[in-house]
Design brief:
CATH class: Alpha Beta
Structural class: alpha/beta
CATH superfamily: Vaccinia Virus protein VP39
Largest sheet: 7 strands, mixed
Number of domains: 1
Helix content: 25-40%
Bound molecules: S-adenosyl-L-homocysteine
Distance between the termini: 36 Å
Shape: globular
Strand order of the largest sheet: 5-4-3-6-7-8-9
Number of strands: 9
CATH architecture: 3-Layer(aba) Sandwich
Strand content: 25-35%
Number of helices: 6
Radius of gyration: 15 Å
Length: about 200
């Protein structure tokens, strides 16, 4: 996976490659989909949700330019896999999930794989961010939003990075936003297909 799907497509950050080589992706997938753990595509995690293709997890993580000291917010924790990768790259991760079953699953997966120490799973509507532990050095959103929720920008530190799929419920642009004082610079990283973001700033 690391050689053929990540390095071959231009993921160069050695810390991202190391984290993805080390974290056992199969442990985050339901028993019946384990054979597809390292497939080059998204995989079902139940409840109509999917774990992103490995390349997209790596690309999003690389965009955040994490060095190891950051506090990161993830919106859409799902299986907990992406949060585990972020936890390997930053000091601490707050991973928000709106579905109680998936929040519990993520917590169990993170504990079983020894990735829970610096990842806090929170059951909440992450489209509002998570004010209690803000501000964040970086924010990663794993569900498609109609537009960038304002609370996420408000909870981002100055010069912080936010990566988020924005578009309609089928196709989106993966945006990388960088906060610079009162301004935000944004660019499109690539086209993507994520499941919809629910909640107050998501799709009703
Ligand atoms: N990052 C996950 C996969 C994300 S799938 C992984 O590594 O497995 C998208 C997830 O976003 C789903 O679990 C879905 O329930 C969750 N979600 C959707 N809207 C949300 C919201 N408003 N707040 C928090 N989580 C949300």
């Amino acid at each position: 996976m690391v050689e053929d799907q990540l390095r071959a497509r231009g993921i160069e950050d050695p810390r991202v490659l190391e984290a993805m080589a080390r974290i056992p992706r199969e442990e985050f997938l339901p028993e019946r989909f384990r054979a597809e753990s390292y497939a080059d595509e998204p995989v079902s995690i139940g409840w109509n949700q999917t774990i992103s293709q490995p390349y997209i997890v790596a690309l999003m993580a690389a965009c955040l330019e994490l060095k190891g000291e950051e506090t990161v917010l993830e919106v859409g924790c799902g299986s907990g896999y992406h949060a585990a990768v972020l936890g390997a790259l930053a000091a601490q991760v707050v991973a928000v999930e709106i579905l109680p079953e998936l929040a519990a699953l993520a917590q169990a997966n993170l504990e079983r794989t020894g990735c829970a120490a610096n990842v806090r799973v929170v059951l909440a509507d992450g489209s509002h961010g998570y004010e209690a532990l803000a501000p964040y050095d970086a924010i990663s959103v794993a569900a498609a939003a109609p537009s960038t929720p304002k609370p996420l920008l408000d909870q981002l530190k100055d010069s912080g990075r936010l990566v988020i799929p924005v578009g309609d419920m089928i196709d989106q642009d993966l945006l990388l936003l960088r906060k610079a004082g009162s301004r935000t610079h944004s660019h499109v990283v690539t086209g993507v297909r994520f499941v919809p973001l629910r909640g107050g700033h998501g799709w009703r």
